[in-house]
């Protein structure tokens, strides 16, 4: 069972940047596709970005396209989310997720392991 630990959240002003990291405790990290989701108060968890095992393919939600970048380092068992030009509506708890297998996914139900989440707050 893979365990995920996110870090890097915090408080930032609108227009600023934050970088999230997610460390996975599994020896076969390169066989997992990875994703980031977020959940704002009173809202459902929503897809943010996902990346294939090889980094060859990445998907983004329309709301973050052009501002966020997902990447991974298989040698470090870590996936990253670089967030630029942050907006107040990006405020949420951000979750890292792992999906066993090589197929990239965007639905929360396709991911079998989740981190505990890290808070991102963007002030106006």
Which key phrases capture this entry?
four-stranded antiparallel sheet; 11 strands; seven-stranded mixed sheet; 124 residues
What does the model show?
The protein is built from no helices and eleven strands. It is mainly beta. The strands form two sheets. Strands 2, 4, 5, 6, 9, 10 and 11 form a seven-stranded mixed β-sheet that branches. The mean pLDDT is 96.
The proportion of residues forming helix, as a percent range, comes to under 10%
Supply the number of helical segments.
0
- Principal-axes shape call: globular
Uncertain runs: none
- What structural category arises from helix and sheet content? mainly beta
The end-to-end span amounts to 40 Å
Question: Mean pLDDT, as a whole number?
Answer: 96
Instruction: Bin the strand percentage.
Output: over 45%
Secondary-structure element order, N to C = EEEEEEEEEEE
Oligomeric status: single chain
Total number of β-strand segments? 11
Sheet with most strands: 7 strands, mixed
Question: What does the radius of gyration come to?
Answer: 13 Å
């Amino acid at each position: 069972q893979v365990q995920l630990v996110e870090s890097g959240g915090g408080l930032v002003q609108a227009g600023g940047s934050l970088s999230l990291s997610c460390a996975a405790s599994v020896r076969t990290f390169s066989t997992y596709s990875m994703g980031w989701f977020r959940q704002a108060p009173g809202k459902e968890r929503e897809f943010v970005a996902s990346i294939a095992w090889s980094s060859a393919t990445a998907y983004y939600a329309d709301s973050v396209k052009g501002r966020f970048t997902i990447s991974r380092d298989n040698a470090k068992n870590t996936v990253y989310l670089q967030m630029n030009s942050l907006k107040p509506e990006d405020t949420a708890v951000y979750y890292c997720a792992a999906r066993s297998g090589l197929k990239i996914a965007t639905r929360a139900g396709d991911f079998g392991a989740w981190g505990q989440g890290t808070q991102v707050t963007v002030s106006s």
